[in-house]
């Protein structure tokens, strides 16, 4: 007999509780104003991240139907959000830069890299070495390469070697084929 009384009590409690919850949901489901909608969309955009991982990366950048760059790395992770669009590459990283005749004109090696497709920029980190077809060489620990501007730069120490001389210093700006460059703080010694 007591069990029946408890069930009746619960049945009597369930109906008013369900009615109150349903009423609250209906009244709270109004339209958002424009400011609230913008805040919700901003929060969703910040939380929507597209990530792609690749092992044994072999990426080619093609412009106007012609291969311009081939990049290889052991691992990459591409991040794409409203604020970030980049690929982080672990090394060893090897880059081949091709001329208009599809011949390699520059070789680049580094420990790791970041590639930003929207600005066509590369950042190369750790034991960066650049070699050109003209036997010019660059060595540094960091290098920023703006492919669309055909320029490279670093605020760090750099060594440039050509077939006839070499120079070292801190701070570097130049063409990506090392045909022209400026070293902000050259250093070294002269032997007579």
Describe it for me?
This protein has 192 residues and is α+β, with helices and mostly antiparallel strands. The chain folds into 2 domains: 2-45; 50-187, Lipopolysaccharide (LPS) transport protein A like domain (lipopolysaccharide transport protein A fold, Sandwich). 21% of the residues lie in helices and 55% in strands. The chain contains 2 helices and 9 strands, in the order ααβββββββββ. It has helices spanning 2-28, 34-47; strands at residues 50-63, 66-80, 85-98, 104-116, 121-132, 137-146, 151-161, 166-175, 181-187. The protein has a 9-stranded antiparallel beta sheet with strand order 1-2-3-4-5-6-7-8-9, with no helix packed on it. Strand 1 and strand 2 form a beta hairpin. The protein is elongated. It starts with a helix and ends in a 5-residue tail after the last strand.
What descriptive keywords fit this protein?
192 residues; alpha+beta; lipopolysaccharide transport protein A fold; 2 domains; 9 strands; 55% strand; elongated
Topology:
Blueprint: H1 2-28, H2 34-47, E1 50-63, E2 66-80, E3 85-98, E4 104-116, E5 121-132, E6 137-146, E7 151-161, E8 166-175, E9 181-187
